[in-house]
Amino acid sequence: MKSQKRSSQKKIKAKFIFLGGFEFREKEIEADPGVRYSELLSSLGINPETVVVIRNDEPVPIDSEIVPGEVKVLRVISGG
């Protein structure tokens, strides 16, 4: 039932800019309402735990629902 509800609603359009060694620099995305950043990143082959999503110069929780507009996806590098 949930998937039927998603498919009947208008798609959300967002521009993703990828920073830090991704195979692509930017992508225009159309997602169903309710899709989370983590779900979308996983579908692109990106581990959500290795990135930070930034919107309006502020970090966004990875489990937030996608909203229209532009976001930056920044690869997190750690080491010692």
Automatic annotation (TrEMBL):
InterPro entries: Beta-grasp_dom_sf (IPR012675), Mopterin_synth/thiamin_S_b (IPR016155), SAMP2 (IPR053833)
Superkingdom in the source lineage: Archaea
CDD domains: Ubl_SAMP2_like (cd17506)
Gene3D superfamilies found in the cross-reference section: 3.10.20.30
One family name in Pfam for this protein: SAMP2
SUPFAM superfamilies, alphabetized: MoaD/ThiS
The protein, known as: MoaD/ThiS family protein
Species of provenance: Geoglobus acetivorans
